[in-house]
Amino acid sequence: MAHEKKQRKLTAEKKLVLKVLPEEFILTTSLYFEQFQTKSTVIRWRLPKKIDPFNINADLEILSDNLQRLSKQYKLEGHQVTTVIANRISPLKVISIPLNLNTAADKKEYAAMQKQAYEFWKEYDEGLVDTKDAQIRADFLALNDNDGSSTMLYTACSSKIIKEYTAMILGGNLYPIGFIPEDQSIIRIVESRLTRIERERPFCIFFLTQGDSRLIYVNSDVFYIAKVNISDMDEILFDELPEAKDSEAINSASALDDDTDNLFWSEVTNRLTASLKQAFAFLKDELKLSKVETVFFISDHAKENILFELFRKNFRLANFRSLSSQFTFEMLHNPDVIEADEVMGEKNLSEYKNYGSFMLPNLGCYHMQYFSSPSYKNMVIETPLFNLHPKYRFIVNNFTFYNHYQIGKKLMLTFLVLSCLTLGYASLNKKNDMMLNALNEFTNMSKDLEQEKNLLGVENSTKAQIMTDLAKLQNLDKGNYNDKLFKFFNADLPTDLELERVVVRRNSFILLGNGKSFSEVNRFYEHFSANPNFKDLIFKVFKRKDSNLQYFEIKGNTISPNTQAKPS
To answer: How much is the average pLDDT of 531-541?
Structure first.
């Protein structure tokens, strides 16, 4: 008798993830997980000209302007965004270092060396020779029992490139909180869609993308990339591929000698497949990696399905599969007729009818949902995402607010409801007088609790008055310590910022002003937060409707000389 499987609960995450392609922005706003499909909302923003995503500095103004228009039209101004960094500028690789990180001594030595990360890693990564200022991330994968060395998953990216991406995003009225290596994101989302057996075996991903096509090999503690060489001319021809029905004749018996078009495309297909076979042979024969049974095809080209069929006809070295049918998406086309909630994924799930894998580099930046459990962990996949933002923790702490009062209130209400339900259930089989006694007792307890609460409030009020009087005495004794506030912004106020108003009450202050750019306002606030004389800072900024200036507010308190923490 067939058993109906229990359907897993649908989960969702709302988050902005950006990928810069030569001709467009790919911005995903949400991701829903189901057992056999994912559902995401996507914005594809066409750029006015073709740009180089591996060197955005030349077109920084164009990119910032288009990102600003996108965020304004889709009501996303001020949102936090995670950006996917291309493999060419932040390659993911495996490196062995002569340290046993399973021992406390070597682990301590490794931690000390990371204070001068560039000097340590330049001996193992030749790519760092020309990049002295780099963001470097690494994590332990496995121990080599033969020589006691440690295998590390590693990536690095020029700090100059990260600054350029930061400037582009801030110029687009968004806040960058993460820069994630593209390949780490891709392998996470692909692996999450595999069966238990497939997750326990090595697999390959063939990523067909303009200027950086590659074959990615993944095993439990092994990661390698083999470049698939495709000429610029062949990449240009992708847009000219015949439609589905016509493409069926390519490399088939119907491709007759006098059928010039089909013979031409057959030659192109043979050339492309030969490059893929060469990369596959390199992984197998040169690197001696474990046998791969399946190669998964993904691409950000418009004619993904046609390209997949052409490669599949000629590639017989392993199973060649497309995952596009597992990734459905809803394209957000017209921002004038949608609400802000719809942009962030509040849509009817039945509307997701489009398929594709172009947004997979974005989707791997979300929290993964798995529907199978392998017998052992894949350490490459288990490695946390590398965030290349130099001030990631600082930004998250300043833009994330946890309302502890509301959480405590909800917990208390839940406790009271459960208590009432328990008392009600227990009293069903008791006499009426016992029920009344229990109710009276509960009422008395509530009154006692209220009295205790009132007494505590009086004590807190008395304590607060004492602290206020003490503060007044200290203020009289030490003078007006808000002078440090005036000295600070008189010295550190940038020329691109102006103050409209300054409000000072005892040791609290409010600064109101305008700035020419988000980046200058944010930099001024970072100086504030780094100054030990100020605390409890609250920062707000938004674009003025009556001008191009950015209005900002900074609230906080000045620390008294008597209350500053003494060094231990």
So the answer is: 84
**Cα–Cα distance, 376 to 354 (Å, whole number):** 34
Q: Number of C-alpha atoms within 13 angstroms, CB side, residue 126?
A: 0
**Cα(180)–Cα(385) distance, rounded to whole angstroms?**
7
Q: What is the amino acid identity at position 201?
A: R
- The answer to whether the 8-90+161-193+323-400 and 195-322 domains have the same CATH topology is yes
Q: Match domain 483-558 to its CATH number in 1.10.1670.40, 3.40.50.1000, 2.40.50.140, 3.30.70.2830.
A: 3.30.70.2830
Q: Which numeric CATH code is attached to 195-322?
A: 3.30.420.40
Q: Which residues pair with 38 in a beta bridge?
A: 33, 327
Cβ-Cβ contacts under 8 Å for 241 (sequence gap 6 or more): 247, 265, 303, 306, 307, 310
What contacts 526, CB < 8 A, 6 or more positions away?
391, 394
The answer to whether residue 563 scores a pLDDT higher than 50 is yes
Q: CA end-to-end span of the chain, whole Å?
A: 71
Q: Is 419 helix (H, G, I), strand (E, B) or coil?
A: helix
**DSSP string computed for 488-552:** HHHHH--TTEEEEEEEEETTEEEEEEEES-HHHHHHHHHHHHH-TTEEEEEEEEEE-SSSS-EEE
Q: 110 Cβ partners below 8 Å, 6+ apart?
A: 97, 99, 101
335-375 tens-digit pLDDT:
654 555 556 554 544 455 688 899 999 999 999 988 888 88
Task: Specify the CATH number of the domain 8-90+161-193+323-400.
Answer: 3.30.420.40
Checking phi first, is residue 560 left (phi over 0); if not, alpha (psi -120 to 50) or beta?
beta
316-325, 446-455, 552-561: which is most confident: 316-325
- Secondary structure element (H or E) that encloses residue 85, with its range: strand 80-85
Q: Are strands 294-299 and 319-322 parallel, antiparallel or unpaired?
A: parallel
Band the pLDDT of 58: cuts 50, 70, 90: very high
| Residue 508 identity | S
Q: What is the mean pLDDT of the chain?
A: 82
- The rounded distance, in Å, linking the Cα atoms of 332 and 44 is 8
* pLDDT band with cut points at 50, 70 and 90 for residue 447: confident
* pLDDT score of 7 more than 70: no
Question: Which of 330, 373, 332 has the alpha carbon at shortest distance from 12?
Answer: 330
**Structural contact between residues 260 and 249, judged by C-beta atoms closer than 8 angstroms:** no
Record the pTM: 0.67
Cα distances from 82 to residues 134, 178, 332, 351, in angstroms, run: 19, 5, 19, 26
Higher pLDDT, 4 or 111: 111
Helix, strand, coil share (%) of the chain residues, nearest 5: 40, 25, 35
Taking residues 513-523, report their average pLDDT.
Answer: 84
